[in-house]
Amino acid sequence: MIRFEDVTKRFGSRTCALSDISVKISDGEFVFLIGPSGAGKTTLLRLIIRDLVPSSGHVWVDEWDLRKIAKSQIYLLRRKVGMIFQDFKLLSERTLFENVSLALEIFGKKPPEIEKGVMDILALVGLADKRHHFPAQLSAGEMQRAGIARAIVGGPKILLADEPTGNLDPQTARSIVDILQEVNKIGTTVVMATHNAGIVNDIKKRTLLLEEGKIIHDETKGHYSVSGKIKKKS
Fold first, then answer.
1. How many other CB atoms are there within 10 angstroms of residue 16's CB atom?
2. In what order do the strands lie in the sheet with 15-25?
3. Where are the domains of the chain?
4. In angstroms, what is the C-alpha Rg of the chain?
5. What is the bridge-based pairing of β-strands 30-34 and 206-211?
6. d(CA 99, CA 208)
7. Which end of the chain lies in a sparser environment, N or C, as judged by fewer CB atoms within 10 Å?
8. Computed from CA positions of residues 100, 106, 107, 111, in that sequence, does the dihedral angle turn out positive or negative?
């Protein structure tokens, strides 16, 4: 479970990225974050991963109050919360297999476990035949699928995705979201920030609209209209 309680996040004395946010995301939900650039979507995700700390209020991930979590415990949080980035963040000098296996190496898994775990995940995202390729040899869609594989190989309970389809053509973008839905079906909570109206409209999942750092609407089956406002579909 993710819970925000009266959360405000300021950068400096003037910039308020989030203002008095209170919202709960239950285990196993699939949630879209929508809104204009600068609305606070990325800040909200970075608070969940504990890359940022609230200026006031509290962010909870299960039993952890992220304002109070000890620095020595953050790595445990990040085993539970995976993150997918728009710019992939793959290590250019490592092969696809090595990029994905890194998380399992950090967890202290043995080589046979790493081999099986990585290959199972690469098969899930359709990249098993690219295991020896370097990032420069992959298309943008393949790199994003690699980013998903790296984020989920350790079995996180929560998966955050920050504009994962932003640089992709419509067909590839939809394939990425299809993978995220498959991950969600096995019980993983998925929170995806996006500007992709077509995907939001087609999938009809819970949708949070952020504007100027505030949650303006929270709809169970949201619709991303041209204006950026959510309208509930009948």
1. 17
2. 15-25, 2-11, 56-61, 64-65
3. 2-89+142-219
4. 18
5. parallel
6. 32
7. C
8. positive
Separation between Cα atoms, residue 162 and residue 78, nearest integer Å: 16
Smallest Cα–Cα separation from 33: which of 54, 18, 55, 50?
18
| The pLDDT of residue 138 | 95
Alpha helices in the chain (DSSP H): 41-48, 74-80, 96-106, 111-124, 140-152, 170-185, 197-203
Q: What is the pLDDT of residues 164-209, one digit of tens each?
A: 988 889 999 999 999 999 999 999 999 999 999 999 999 999 999 9
- pLDDT tens digits along 138-159: 999 999 999 999 999 999 999 9
Hey, is 154 helix, strand or coil?
coil
pTM: 0.90
Contacts of residue 167, defined as CB under 8 A and 6 or more positions apart, other chains included, come to 86, 140
- Joined together, the tokens standing for residue 228 give 């950026």
At the second CATH level, the architecture of 2-89+142-219 is 3-Layer(aba) Sandwich (3.40)
Integer Cα distance of 113 and 206 in angstroms: 36
Name residue, tokens 């974050």: 33
Which amino acid belongs to residue 117?
G
